[in-house]
Specification:
- The protein folds into 2 domains: about 80 residues, no CATH class; about 100 residues, 2-Layer Sandwich (Alpha-Beta Plaits), CATH 3.30.70.60.
- Helices cover about 55% and strands about 20% of the residues.
- It has 5 helices and 5 strands; from the N terminus they run ααααβββαββ.
Length: about 200
Amino acid sequence: MAFQDALKDLQELDINNLDLEAIGTWPILAKSILWAIVLIGCLVAGFIYDISPLREKLATVTATEQTLREDYKRKAFKAANLAAYRKQMIEMEETFGALLSQLPTDTEVPGLLEDITEEGVSNGLEISSIKLQPEVKKEFYVELPISIEVKGPYHDLAAFVSGIAGLPRIVTLHDFSISNTKGGIDLSMSITAKTYRYRDPEAG
């Protein structure tokens, strides 16, 4: 009965007659609606000014946590395989040292030229010229091009090329050019042999 009376009072209520300074005289239902509006307003304001920044901070912290987890996984994987990495590094250093030992030093280049000349002579070729070309500096090594011109039968030329490739020093062959010579079965071959020297970047 009291609720019906309060509802009736609310229906008969004229908002224009409500006085904020006399809230105590308002019908109970009108007071309840006002307090509900105030409560909802406080909750919304609290969410906007307090909870919302906290949620943004939480999202940032969550993203940071995910990044740290991924970083931790990578570092944990590296730590678990540290022994294998060290072993691999030792093997790489040994391989690198073995390769360096195959690169001629400045004092060994004349000996390399002699080895190439000997390969040509032992295969019955006529040595037209063997000339050391200017060095070509790279980041970690120096190229030492050697221009070679020889004459002889095809099979002897092939044996000469194979002999150079089999030298104990690293020698690569480039720019083949073979042409017929006048009046004979001999061929003329021009080829560039390249050997290499290690260059320490810190030494300039």
